[in-house]
Amino acid sequence: MTTTRERTPRRLPGWAWAAGTAVLVLALLAAGLGLSALPALKDVFGTETRDRSGPALLQSVQDMSRYEAASGNFQVVVDLEKDTKFLPDAVRGSRTLYVGAGTVDAYVDLGKVGEDDVQVDEDRASATLRLPHAALGRPALDPDRSYAVSKQRGLLDRLGDLFSDNPNGEQAVQRLAVRHISAAAKESGLTARAERNTTDMLEGLLRSLGFSRVKVVYGR
């Protein structure tokens, strides 16, 4: 009498499942779908963010003698495209559309005013001040109002992001936004407004001290 044994299905080892999953992910990337084709992936793994940063340390203290007389708010749309010769954009290349918003302050450096730059008549009724021209500070990009509208990257760029310490870095478009904001501030007349505001401030201050005539001159 012949008996037939039922074969028990063999289970694949854990490394085989991991390898299969990796191949599937790479296939999706090659098809141009990326991880966005798996919208529920983050929910499955339950990603959690923790802030383990240490306390901020005070490095130095500086006494400021600048009078911040005006501040301008600027916004620029940066369209940065990078192409590679002999390769189509779908394989290697990127294009980022970025909205950069930031502020630029204009100030008068009162610390450069010397004794010879302040003249007061004998009866202390008239005063003349000679100040340096107003200057622009460095643009400060506001991260809460700056954002990427769209990012397009070729297959090799997306694969490179998987092994990069800073995937999808935006340093290039941020630097370009700061450069455009700085150029716009120079053309905005912000320094002229800062000088007018400084003049109004000093006239009000000296008149409250008893001076009836106050003259402020810029340029040293």
| Continuous helix count | 5
State the helical fraction: 25-40%
State Rg: 31 Å
Strand tally is: 8
Structural class: alpha+beta
Spans where pLDDT lies below 50 across 5 or more residues: 28-38
SSE order, one letter for each helix or strand: HHEEEEEEEHHHE
Tell me the β content.
Answer: 25-35%
Mean pLDDT: 75
The main pleated sheet reads as: 5 strands, antiparallel
Overall outline: elongated
For the terminal residues, how far apart are their CA atoms?
116 Å
Task: Provide an overview of this structure.
This protein has 220 residues and is of the alpha+beta class. The protein is 30% helix and 28% strand. The chain has five helices and eight strands; from the N terminus they run ααβββββββαααβ. The strands form two sheets. Strands 1, 2, 5, 6 and 7 form a five-stranded antiparallel β-sheet that branches. It has a three-stranded mixed β-sheet with strand order 3-4-8, covered by helices on one side. Strand 3 (118-120) and strand 4 (126-131) form a beta hairpin. The protein is elongated and about 75 Å long. Residues 28-38 have low confidence and may be disordered.
